[in-house]
Amino acid sequence: MVALDIHGDCIGCCGIHNITEESIELGLWLKVSAQGRGLGNEIITVLIEFLENNFIFKYILYPVDEKNIPSKKIPEKLGFIQAKKYKKFKNVITDLTILEYRKYYRH
């Protein structure tokens, strides 16, 4: 999905990925000029509300690059816990260390 500001300009994108009965993954990217204003929290909160109202699952995944401090703050603020840490190939020069946050549910 595309994230638009109040003027209809693209400020980033977000997505709901890998939907299973076990888990659903969320993703978010905001351009630099849109960061630091609480928009990430707002977008992820709306996505979580949509998932809670429309799907049954055990947990939501929210993976972030370990070095991206602002991205880590989003799941931490929204009650996710860090569940995994792993390497992910980005390109021939760079591997990312991914922190996988999870928010668990009881149904």
Write up this protein.
This protein is an alpha+beta fold. 23% of the residues lie in helices and 42% in strands. It has 2 helices and 6 strands. The protein has a 6-stranded mixed beta sheet with strand order 1-2-3-4-6-5, with helices on one face. Strand 3, helix 1 and strand 4 form a beta-alpha-beta unit. The longest helix is centred in the middle third of the chain and has 16 residues. It is globular and about 40 Å long. It starts with a strand and ends with a strand. 18% of the residues are buried.
Over the alpha carbons, how many angstroms does the gyration radius reach? 14 Å
Largest sheet strand order? 1-2-3-4-6-5
β content, as a range?
35-45%
Beta-strand segment tally: 6
Biggest β-sheet strands, sense, barrel = 6 strands, mixed
Structural class: alpha+beta
Count up the helices. Answer: 2
H and E string: EEEHEHEE
Low-confidence stretches: none
Overall mean pLDDT stands at 94
What percent of the residues sit in helical stretches (DSSP H or I)?
10-25%
Shape: globular
Distance between the termini: 28 Å
Which key terms come to mind for this protein?
alpha+beta, single chain, six-stranded mixed β-sheet, 107 residues, globular
Topology:
Layout: E1 2-4, E2 10-17, E3 23-30, H1 39-54, E4 59-65, H2 69-77, E5 81-89, E6 95-104
Parallel strand pairs: 3-4
Antiparallel strand pairs: 1-2, 2-3, 4-6, 5-6
